[in-house]
Design brief:
six-stranded antiparallel beta sheet; 16 strands; 486 residues; five-stranded parallel beta sheet; alpha/beta; 36% helix; 17 helices
Amino acid sequence: MRSGDVDTSDWMETFIAWQDDVIRGLLSHFYVTPPESYNAAAADGTMVSGTMARPRCRVLSDDEPGDASSVEGALERLYKNCTDKDRYYMLEVSENRELQSPGSSRSTRHVQMKLPGGAACAYTAGDHLEVMGNNDPGLVEAALKLLGMTGNERVEWVTNFADDSGAARIPGSNQALTLTLSASQVLTWLVDLAAVPTRRNLGLLAESCPCPPEASQLRQLATDEALYKERISSKRMTLLELLEHFRSAAVSLGELVSLLPRMGPRYYSISSSPLANHNSCSISVSKVTFTTPTGRIHNGAASATIAATAPGGKLMGSVRNLSSSFKLPEDHSIPLVMVGPGTGVAPMMAFLQERAALAAGGATLGPAHLFFGCRNSKEDYIYQAEMEKYLETGVLAGLHVAFSREGALKVYVQDLILQQGQTMWQLLEAGAYVYVCGDARKMAPDVRVAFKDVAQAWGGKNATASESWMGSLLEAKRYLEDVWAG
């Protein structure tokens, strides 16, 4: 069975390879002999005949009726017959402020949004906000220029297809819904213009390319995995950049859309508690921006949009209630240990805000310790004032901050956990819950190791016993992680 990392630029290629393996396995298992055209496509790596997938949209002619919908109007039509919990809303931003210090070269935003009334977006501390990103205006402009369009053209978008095009389906319905949008809206909201084209895409372009030399080059990129990785995926080259290079491989808007994946949502841990204000929620967002090897400045589809949305503006999103146990215990007297470096501190801020509200209401709180990590106290010590206030008021019993770029030694949260080993062991023996949020690649595994080292140093356990001890914490849902690869 193949495996892949969705954080890499070629994850879709890995999925397609897995899909092809499954199809071949099913054909063999059920003794189905595929046609020669399928075998030939499978052998050269394209797996597709020389025709593009059926377009999900078409440009309307001047004499065809229909005005382009607004984004809000399209949402209302799309979600007309679904439950409130299954839909997106246009959420008004009430606050958007920078968390990093003026001298920092990076940006992390605290964004507060108003929520629709009723149960539509009810949440608890620990839940996520799902935000639909959109393409960078520069990418949209480049796509329109490539297509020879102004962006004002009216486009008919069919949401439901009885094929594998990947088009959106109306929740609770198998019926097609046709939306009329502008070309600019389609390219802004519905497809991911920053996606790296797959080898299958290159094979399709090669088959439709009228220029033999360029068709040959495209076919070579499609069939040679090493060459594809060297020239396309490792450089994070977009389909638009590729088409600029292979000018004879012209495509229409419908064909471009059929080659691109749909724009997907991003998920952010909510950093507020409904006990403080149930009509709004906040998120903490690090803006993603970097220059690709091709020289293109890449801005994150969601993070850049969020960062640029001023108070009064709107973001497309919805609360997603987690089915996991990453929630505060019902017994408020249970001790807590929270580990959240960087924006991993977001759900911990929600927990602390909730604890402050509970304390104000007369609840008795158990001790809580927070381990936070950043690079430098002068640059990215986000929420410093809030955390120190929680420490001063007793909402926090301990605040432990690791600076990885300050001083001669790099200090991380796992180092501070070991330094506080005796206190941590006493809390864990008293039934403490541990919450870890942030990087899944390095931080989360290292934090687990640190806690197992604490069990050995202060609990008298050997390596085998500490592994078993960690397993028992996980099984009892007292060691909880909300982590991501990034």
